[in-house]
C-alpha cells in the first residue's frame, strides 16, 4: 500500500499490471486529502487510514483504471466499504454527488501524466 502525494499514470499502470491487470484499488479520505493505492482489498487500505486517524465517514473506496485517465471511466465508485446506511449510502457506489465531486477532484490533483 502506498499513500500518494503525487503519482504518475506510469506508476499506476505498473501497479495495475502486478495486481489486477487494468485496475488499481484505492481509498480516499476526503477530509484529510489522502489517497492510498495498491492493495488487494479496499478494507486493508481503510484499516491503515483508520489507524492513522481518519474517520470512517470520510473514507471511500474506488477503483482506478489508468488506461482510461481523464475519461468518465477512469474512476469507478465500487467498494464494499462504501455501504453505510448511517450515511444514507446503501450501495457499493457513492450516492452523494457532492462526495463524488470531492473524490474526483482529490484523485485528479494526485494523479499526473
Overview of this protein structure:
It is globular, with a radius of gyration of 13 Å. The chain has helices at 9-19, 42-51, 97-110, and strands at residues 2-4, 7-8, 24-29, 34-37, 59-64, 75-76, 111-112. It is α+β, with helices and mostly antiparallel strands and 113 residues long. The model has no long low-confidence stretch (mean pLDDT 95). The longest helix has 14 residues, at 97-110. It has one domain (2-112).
Compressed to H and E, one letter per element, the order equals: EEHEEHEEHE
Structural class category = alpha+beta
What can be said about the biggest beta sheet? 5 strands, antiparallel
Summarize model confidence as the mean pLDDT.
Answer: 95
How large is the share of residues in beta strands? 15-25%
User: Total strand count, please?
Assistant: 7
Distinct helical segment count = 3
The number of domains = 1
Strand order of the largest sheet: 1-4-3-5-6
What's the quaternary structure here?
single chain
Radius of gyration: 13 Å
**N- to C-terminal distance:** 21 Å
Main attributes of the structure:
113 residues; alpha+beta; two-stranded parallel ribbon; five-stranded antiparallel beta sheet
Concise summary:
The protein has helices at residues 9-19, 42-51, 97-110; strands spanning 2-4, 7-8, 24-29, 34-37, 59-64, 75-76, 111-112. The chain is α+β, with helices and mostly antiparallel strands.
SSE order and pairing:
Layout (H helix, E strand, L loop, with lengths): L1 E3 L2 E2 H11 L4 E6 L4 E4 L4 H10 L7 E6 L10 E2 L20 H14 E2 L1
Parallel strand pairs: 2-7
Antiparallel strand pairs: 1-4, 3-4, 3-5, 5-6
